[in-house]
Every structure is written in C-alpha cells, then in structure tokens.
Amino acid sequence: MPAAARPALRVLAVASEAFPWIKTGGLADVVGALPAALAPEGVEVTTLLPGYPAVMAALDTVQRVEPLPDLLGSPARLVHATPGGQHVVALDAPHFFARAGSPYLAPWGQDWPDNPMRFAALSRAAATLAQTGGFDALHAHDWQAGLAPAYLRFDAPRLPSLFTLHNLAFQGQFPAELFPALGLPWDAFGPAGVEYYGQVGYLKAGLWFADRITTVSPSYAAEIRTPEWGMGLDGLLRGRARALEGILNGLDTDEWNPATDPLLPAHYDAADPSARAANKVHLQARMGLAPDPDAPLFAFIGRLTWQKGIDLVLEALPAVLDNGAQIALLGTGDGVLEDRVHGATAANPGRVGSFIGFDEGFARLCYGGADAVILPSRFEPCGLGQLCALRYGALPLVARVGGLADTVVDANEMALAAGAGTGFNFAPVTHPMLQASIERAIRLYRQPETWARLRANAMATDVSWARSARRYATLFHEMRAGG
Questions:
Q1: Contact 438, 316 (CB under 8 A)
Q2: What is the domain partition of the chain in residue ranges?
Q3: What residues does ADP-alpha-D-glucose bind to (predicted)?
Q4: What is the pTM of this model?
C-alpha cells in the first residue's frame, strides 16, 4: 500500500541515546535518523531519551511537562519538546541522569552501579507513556530499553512492541536480587520471562516479550541463531525465528554528504571526485604520513577492540608496508591494543599514522581522504562505517560477516568483468586472509581506470534509509493490525 494511502501511525521509540543530542556509537545514529526516514511513510515517531544534561540542555522548545509521581519508587517528569523539529520526550529524573560524562560509565571507568535501576526506570516510563500518549506501538532499542516490552506485556490494555537488537554482545545482565525493585509480577521471573541463567536479563526480556524482533542486517539475524554467534541466546532466537527479521541500517544522506560536509577541507561528489586528492593531502599531513599522492592510503576508524579486529590489522601490516602503501589508524579502546598501535606508529614513521581517541572531524577526513577503509570485524550486526565509506568513495575492505557482507559487493574477477564491485570482502576472518585482501586492493589501486570504476560504483550505492524505512513502516502497520 502506498504511504499516502496508509492511515497515520504513531510510534514511541525508546533508547539510551540518539544523535544529535547524545551519542557514544552507532545506536545513536540509527535512533536519531529513523524518525525523519519514517515520516514519508506515514509513521510519526516520538523518541523517549534519558534526561542527561546534554539532552535537557537541547530542549529549547518545551511543549509540556508530565509528572510521574512514582517511577519505581521515585518522582520524575516527562518533558515534551521538539528540538530541531523532532518529537522528543526526556525522562527528567535527576537522581538517575543528571551526571556529566558518559551515559553509562562513571568517572573511574566502570559502569554506574545503579545502571540497572536507571534503565529500568527508562523502560517503565516508556511503557507508561506508550499506553497513555495515544501511540500505536512501542519501539525499544537494545538492552537499556529491554524491559519496556516486559512492562507492556503485563499492562492492560496492551500495545504491540518491537524490539531492535543492535548488538547481542551487550546483554544487560544483573543479579536476581534486583527483581523485586523492578515492579514486575513474579510471573515475569522465569525462563519464560526475564530470568537468564539465574540473573535478570534486560536484553533477554526484550527478545522474549516483544511482539516482533528486528536486528540491523539480514545476515546478522541468521548468524545469531547459531551457537557460534548466539552468545547463549541462540535457542531463544531460533524459537522466535518467525518474529525475527533483519532490516538493514542506513545513513542520513543529508548529514553524510561529501558535497556539503562542513568537516571536509574539500568537497566533491560522485560526478567529480577529484577533490578527494586534496583531502588525502590533509589526512597525510594530520596523521604524520609522507606526502605521497601515489601511495595507496588505507584507514581504520573504530573501537580498538577484539571485535573490531584491530589486532588483525596490526598483524597484516606487512601487506601495507611491503607494497608501498600507508595506513591511518583512528580510535580508542583496549589499553594493550592502544599500546600496539603506538608501537606500530613509532616503528614505521611516515608509513603508519595514528590518533588515539575519537574526533568526528578526523573520522570524516578519513572517509573523505583515504583510498580504502578497513573493517575486519569478527562479528558486525550492521556497521555504519562501510556505509560512510561507500558514500564518501573510500572503498570498504570488510570481513564477510553480518551487515558488512550484506552491503559490500566484492570486486572479484566475475564482478570486475561485469563492471560491478564496490569494495573487498574476505573470509575467514584471519590476518592472512585480510593481508591477501589488502594486497588485492593495492593491485587494483594501481589500475586507475578499474579503481575509478569501483569508486563510482561505491558512491552510486544507495545507503539511505529509504528501503529499510518502507519495511519498518510495513512492520508497524502489521503490528497494529495484530499481525
């Protein structure tokens, strides 16, 4: 049914972060982009967020304030506003959220001790608002909102709920002694409920109680139903296979646009990408790399963790260095891996550059100036980095897992013969296979016409939310109809 013919539908989304108000990772980008993507499909999204200081400071168009006199034993408020034209509700509970710094971590680097109650309160507020605010469905994201479908299941009348799983590795498991404080009936504590190996499982609650489940790519939806990647929940996910599907993430292509990006020194588009050369010069200078326009320049942008495969990149450095290429490493994470990055940089001046930390402008410069971006994740629910790389014309070199496999067309011999290919895939996820893929990319880089065609293919790829938004809209309408 065309969007114009569908009845209007109102959805309450709940998450622990959303761009541009609060962001620590890709979850925020997805939650922030979906409302605008769904609007043309006749779906109006209101987003409920914790009232962190940054969120409260952004609420310059407050419409109304709704008291919650007893939110899990404490008073709170719901502050309704429209910052930037988006419908946002902030859970104003200062005792939980009025804290500077990370949304999740205390200044000493560990999780806030009261995170279980902070995010239980967010979920309880979401279920209450969904019932009283005239919404047609609730859309909960990741473990921090995982209890919301559980609260809804025991409320009456009950709204349908969708739970989107962004990363199964983060499950929100807490001691069973917490359960009485959550305000759920004892019927909810058991294998057919929130209990998970003797603990309270917030993510497990979302997977069990939601009417429908999505994850952020079709391949990841299949992978997590296997013992290898199900992380203890594969049995539950196989049991709920009919309710589970993968809907690929997208990008806000207005926000991510090399023709207008204010963080790039030089702008360009698919019709004329020549200005990428100027960005490459800036990137080499900023990373302390030799000013060599002919050297293939690779970039790694992401968390320095085992999951993201930075150790594989370091082990595969001979493929870069022995073939006259350069590499820029940007990210922060595990201290041991950070030290290894420092060591590789010191040992290879002018060839390996690094920046420990994260800077949005620096990341954009990597996408806009590098020739290729390496994403060797051991598992990847979707990944936004390869979508950014495609959009900016830096060919993604990816492990063939999850959303990386779903979004990058390998430039193998048959693809090249057909004029296809948008990047490079490798499997299994080992450093010899990564090294071989890097060497293959370098060979093609030294064939300028072939590389230009691959870059044109990459930049022509539709990385927007359009297709996925249509599927989400259909899913919400099916849920409202009881499907």
A1: yes
A2: 3-250+465-480, 273-460
A3: 23
A4: 0.92
